[in-house]
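An example makes the point: we print one protein in full, the chain in one-letter code, the fold tokenised, without further comment:
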Amino acid sequence: MKNEKTLISAIDIGTSKICVLIANYGQNNSIEILGIGQSKSIGINKGIVVNINETVNAINNAIEEAENQSGEKIDSCTIGISGEHIRGINNIGVIMVKSNNQEIDNNDIKRVLKHAQTITLPLEKRILHVLSQNYKVDDQTGIKDPLGMIGHRLETKVHLVISEVARERNITKCIDQVGLDINNIVLNPLATSYSVLDKNEKNLGIALIDIGAGTTEIIVYTDDGVQHTGIIPLGGNNITLDIAHGVQTTIENAEKLKKDYGIAKEALANPEEIINIKDINDNEVKNLTQKELASFIEPRMEEILMLAKAEIRKCGQGEVFTFGIKLTGGGALLKNAIDLANNIFFQPVKLGKPNLSGGISENLNNPIYATAVGLLKYSIIYKNDMLNEKLSISNIYNSLKKIIKEIF
């Protein structure tokens, strides 16, 4: 049993790419990546499905590549979700403890969490996640796990993630059409936090900013709880478009310019470095300095980071955190992005990436795979919770059998 492994898979449906990961995990929750599949994301815009057939084809291509590499067939997966339609709000739930001895049990915890979800929502919205921040028993605050404590009144503070049902259904329809079951739907920045943040960062305070192609996603942790989530409909693609318009070239050429020569701070660019480019007709050669290229990049990158700063301010926990800011996603790889972020946030800014070891797993230690790896890690916790619940039911059943046997 100690060497028993479980097959898991995750699908990150991003604006620029679809990434499928197939892995094994053991009892110590170590991940062994078996297969990685990627395809160009066609049919997705800013985290939203805009073409079902194109998205299905892209997902199928990524799945096929991952299955061929792993030698395994998958029948279910954990998927991520993003988009401007998603909202995060904080709420409070309060109940009176019912047991005669006032000892808080699992049923009390479930009741108070359910009470925290009693908010009025339009029919097209639903609660995707209920993320507990902390509990209060009578007058005692800051409690992480109230199970077994004695008290009359139980209160919890939670962060609720609200999603739009129709947008979810479009994604789940795509997964259904490729023939897979869905184990869980996870908010992308929440998943990402599982791959790039550690326990100390979540406990003492940190803000995570994931700059993707179509969206920039924010999640704030303090006291080991999610205090705020937010999604901005701007990302790396907007920088690419600015370059394309400014230089008058194709989007493909602009993307290559950004990746090969782009720099986030114009002041740090080399005015002497000459870049040869093609115009929109792909035949006339132009010359551009790195400093001129940076003049198209910095304003948009600064706008994205300033919007992220405004989003972080909404958490009500201040703007400065013990562990500062962590940048991840493809946008974080832009040269000198950390330097620009330092100037905007006035606190330590670090690059966030997964930390896997062994075999092809190390190929994923890159910010662009932070969400995909996070989905895998989240799915392990989800499976373990399901297993514990089954074990709990099994233990109750066995106890009942023992009692019945003693009676008769």
